[in-house]
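Troubleshooting log. The previous structure file for this entry was overwritten by mistake, so regenerating from the original sequence record. Sequence copied from the archived sheet and checked twice against the printout by T.R.
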Amino acid sequence: MRVLLKEILDCTPDAAWRALASPAVFREVSGPLMSVESLETDGFPTTWSPGEHPVAMSGLGLVPLGEQMIRLNMRTTKNGVRIVHDTGNGVSGAMKAVTHWDHSMAISPDPAGTGKTLYRDQLIFSAGPATLAVWPGLWAFWQLRMLRLKALAPTWRYDLGADDPAFVAAGAAEPAESTERAAGPSERGDGLA
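Regenerated output below.
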């Protein structure tokens, strides 16, 4: 089955890309319906890196749903579309019922030239014979997740001084002023993932 969403987010593509690379934003858009905890030794990284990231999930933070392996790949296409691709799988509990998981999130400039972000989100999944029973719940969860993304997007910023190590190194010799202040969710301490 497939869930496909497409929206214009009220932020720049760089800010949206930074948000998608944040475990904090991932956790925030999953809540409050889904609570996600890292099973990595040092907890969630500041930003996602390609590779495997084990997590435990619970419904409303109360009902254990099992463990999931998030398996990430990040790439940029020839025409500049940036994509986060997760091909993870359920490891235990109810999460293991989903036997195929292929989730892609794509970021590109709004084609209308507004400076905003065209966000496309596609989930292809299978739960064997239970696929039709699982689809309504995942579809509803994806709709709520999109509402959270749209609500949070205007708060995302891209601060060259904080986000680009080359810029920081170049500016070490003489102070440079940033044009935008980073107001990312993790800096506010609001648990966005």
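The radius of gyration is 17 Å. Archived copy saved in two places this time.
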